[in-house]
Amino acid sequence: MPILERAWDEVRDLIPGLHRQEGDRLGLFVPDGEDLTIRCYDHRACLFVMYEKDVAICSIQKLHQEGRFDWPKPLSCHLFPIRVRGRRRDQLRYEEFSECAPALALGEAEDVPLVDFLEVPLKRAYGAGVFTELKTRSDAFHETDGEGR
Ligand code: SF4
Fold first, then answer.
1. Residue 137 C-alpha to ligand 1 middle, in angstroms?
2. By alpha-carbon position, which residue is closest to atom 7 of ligand 1?
3. Which domain holds residue 1?
4. What is the DSSP letter of 93?
5. What integer best gives the mean pLDDT of the chain?
6. How far is the CA of 80 from the centre of ligand 1 (A)?
7. Whole-angstrom Cα distance, residue 65 to residue 143?
8. Domain boundary among 56, 73, 90
9. Do 28 and 80 lie in a common domain?
């Protein structure tokens, strides 16, 4: 994961000191089944979390949005709240997470379907063709209020 190690060097001044110390002392990754996952500070916040007032945000994404880092963040984070499962082929599943409730309410109020909210990561993961297919199906679903499945 060299890109995350490079990101770690770049975000050092943004993240809380306790995250920095934990990452330096114990390393950035922990085993997760057959994979590795990013370590969390105190089993709670990802080491790459930073805070603006009381809001937790991704320090990698912040740097990327400011044009200071050339990679948005891990794809699995970028796709959230969609999780990719499946061994032989990808299965995309929505994962309910109570902390996302305000974002869901805003999406509902502004009529932004999840497929549109995730346009950039979906294209990043699967390309424009797959995104267009998903979008077509999503639009048809919304136009018929879910009756046209
Ligand atoms: S988006 Fe991913 S890398 Fe960034 S803070 Fe959240 S869990 Fe960590």
1. 29
2. 46
3. 1-73
4. E
5. 93
6. 10
7. 33
8. 73
9. no
